[in-house]
Design brief:
single chain; about 290 residues; alpha+beta
Amino acid sequence: MKNFSKILVLIFLTCFFLVGKSHACLLIMENSHPLSLVDLGTEITINDGLPNSTWGGGSQALGIAGEDNETEGRPNTYTYQAWDLEGVFWNRETQILTFIGGFDYLNGVYGHANVPIGDVFIGKKYVLDLHRGGGYGGKHLTSTGNFDLIENYGSTENTHDVPSASPYRYLNGGGNIGTGSYSAYRIFYTDWASIDLFEPWRQWSGGPWINDAHYALEISTAGIEFNGTSLSDLINDGNPIHLTYQCGNDLILGQSHPTPEPASLLLLGSGLACIGIIRRKKTKKNGKRLSG
């Protein structure tokens, strides 16, 4: 019986780690409405493998996946907060994909307002063509807007200054297979002191950690279905996600790790339990034979 109990504990732990971990709750303000890291879901940022920038003597890459303060070019790319793309989050329940960093999706960088954010590329076949209409003659995003899901896209525009960060935007080709919505906004922390050293939105300024401006871009993927699959499935299945802006100073990448469906977890648990019962019975039989 003790062995069987151990097997059940093993099953529980296996299911727990397969489902994934959540971030601790930390209140943030989204236009005066409470938002927590739990709302954002799972952090799926991946390191792009590029070293720290050497602009002005270099800066230390920090935060999740080493993306905070890290930029793409060596040398001579800006590293300060306004250009920083820092973290990607995916919430499987709400089916919302979120990008967070210091780059202002609505207005761009002060003094460089002609540089807008690009489109969201997913895998090798799909792109979210974000509708524009915001600042600088409509180049930037609006606070709420729509996007088209393009399959088998054709031409793209590459980044202007850092080729390794390409592609930047969708141009034409492929087929429009769905439409969804996005929102872009600035975020504010309610309790900055509670942020630990592993959160993605840190900015060192020669002293204590400070509350620099951070912005979020939320992509709602719910209800976009096509050819027996969906936009959410594309993310859940682990297709890499790519976002940058026009000059390519920084690039953010994300990738979700596929997890078994609840039915698969139940099947796995049942199988392990059966193996444990069979082994227990065999052990008993062998014990009786030896004693006989």
